[in-house]
Amino acid sequence: MCNVELKQWGNSLAARLPKTILSKAGINELPTKFDVTVNKNNEIVLKKQKEPESLKELFKGFDYKKYWSDWEKENPGKSKEEDWGGPVGREVF
């Protein structure tokens, strides 16, 4: 067990984790993302996020039909294509 101190960092608070603790947790790459929760004992729990191994895993659970349906409701009659404007240089199309 190790004690860490909570300090002011801009408008937030931060706790610095010692390298020994990070090594024990297998964290050696930056940046590393965590899911942060507070359990029923008011303990802060950090869980390292797992990186998706494929695009299929990344988009698992994504409902593209619902996505476009919601987009249509928010942007009625608008084209889904983005207008990038006219050519600015010597582009040939």
Could you please describe the fold and organization of this structure?
By secondary structure, this protein is α+β, with helices and mostly antiparallel strands. Helices cover 23% and strands 19% of the residues. The chain has 3 helices and 4 strands, in the order ββαββαα. The protein has helices at 19-24, 55-58, 64-74; strands spanning 6-9, 12-15, 34-38, 44-48. The protein has a two-stranded antiparallel sheet. A hairpin with a 2-residue loop joins strand 1 (6-9) and strand 2. It starts with 5 loop residues before the first strand and ends in a 19-residue tail after the last helix. 0% of the residues are buried. The model has no long low-confidence stretch (mean pLDDT 89).
Spatial separation of the terminal alpha carbons:
64 Å
**For the largest beta sheet, what order do the strands appear in spatially?**
1-2
Q: Could you tell me the strand content as a percent range?
A: 15-25%
Order of helices and strands: EEHEEHH
Q: What's the total number of strands?
A: 4
- Portion of residues within helices: 10-25%
Helix-strand category: alpha+beta
Low-confidence parts, pLDDT < 50 over ≥5 residues? none
| Average pLDDT rating | 89
The biggest beta sheet reads: 2 strands, antiparallel
3D shape: elongated
